[in-house]
Amino acid sequence: MVAIALGLTGGNFISATYMGLMNQTIEESIEKQLSHIQLHDPDFIADREIRNRIPDARLIADEIRSIPGVLSVAERTSLDGMAASPHLTAGVRITGIIPEREIETTRFNEQIVEGTYFTEEGRLPSVVIGRELAEELQSNVGSRIVLTFQDTEGDLIHASFRVEGIFQATATAFEKGTVFIRSDDISEIIGNEQIFTEIALLLQQEDLLEDISETLRQQYPDLTVRTWKELAPDLEFVVEITEKSLLMITAIILLGVAFGILNTILMSVLERTRELGMLMSVGMKRIQVFFMVILETVLLSLTGGVAGLTASFLLISFLQQRGMDLSSIGGEALRDFGFSPFIYPELDAIFYLKVTAMVVAFAILAAIYPARKATKLEPADAVRHE
């Protein structure tokens, strides 16, 4: 019972930590980077250049806002370019935003750790860069950097910007490779009307994802509509395999516990050889002895299982409220893989039910050999066993 309880507590804790880590990563990616759905010109997918714009993007965005279930919509000008300081040049993704729209969609302003979020007006237009990129460029708030990108004709444009703010994201790769500027500044620099290459929208509920994406595909057949699952297939893959992987981990732990159960029940049968012989001598059938041993094992396993599930539920519930900060024990390395070092473990109720079923199944499997051993006893020899 103790072995089962400890095994389940440990297995559920590992599973809850992994599940919490994955769910946080997906939520962070959707709410602060990808959004639920994005719309692009079909040519933009293969060639991220400003000339592959979305025609009438502002009008389309206003129409999308009126769709029931859409929480917020943000128009963006996304393109690839270079960021240069006196110390280094780096390839970046330049994202032109409407600051107030981006607050509604990604709450990007909450990620600012130094400086301000597009509140200042100066001689040079403002840029917000990631902490990792700022360290590489050796730039601080107030520093001057040069962004290079192509205009609508494919000509290279070099423009100076002043670093107004520095943001920190969960993933270091996002910090290193992304800069934000006002979309109005891009339009002013290239001498053209306001251009948008991307429309991102956040939904009120995840359940509406497929319905609204299909509605958008029918409403805007000339645009490419992609959900976050298509934008980040690696995250979708994680969603599909996470629960299966966790159940496999728990099954491996229970398999190890099952050998302990088998040994315990087998010793119990051998120690009660005389008692079992007496039961069969007074008329108890072998099949009844078999199921008696099975039932005894299941009851013991369920008792230990309930204790383990209760302990793990209390532990996970406590940590779900408080969280676990792994930054002091190397958790910062998680950010290199896009994970947060502060984890909130969580498990679905259905997972607990599946684990309970697994406990019973492994208990029955572990009890089969000892139960068969008991049924092969000869009553006359068993009652004389010392």
Kindly describe this structure:
This protein is of the alpha+beta class and 386 residues long. The chain folds into two domains: 2-25 and 235-382, no CATH class; 42-222, no CATH class. The chain has 14 helices and twelve strands. A hairpin with a 4-residue loop joins strand 2 (70-84) and strand 3 (89-97). Helix 1 (2-34) packs across helix 12 (286-322). The longest helix is centred in the middle third of the chain and has 39 residues, at 233-271. The relative contact order is 0.18. The model has no long low-confidence stretch (mean pLDDT 85).
Order of helices and strands: HEHHEEHEEHEEHEHEHEHHHHEEHH
- In total, the number of domains comes to 2
What is the terminal separation in angstroms? 28 Å
The count of β-strands is: 12
Helix content: 40-55%
Q: Which sheet architecture does the biggest sheet show?
A: 6 strands, mixed, barrel
Mean pLDDT: 85
Radius of gyration: 31 Å
Low-confidence spans? none
Strand content: 15-25%
Strand order of the main beta sheet, please?
2-3-8-5-7-6
Give the number of helices: 14
Shape: elongated
This entry's quaternary arrangement is single chain
* SSE class: alpha+beta
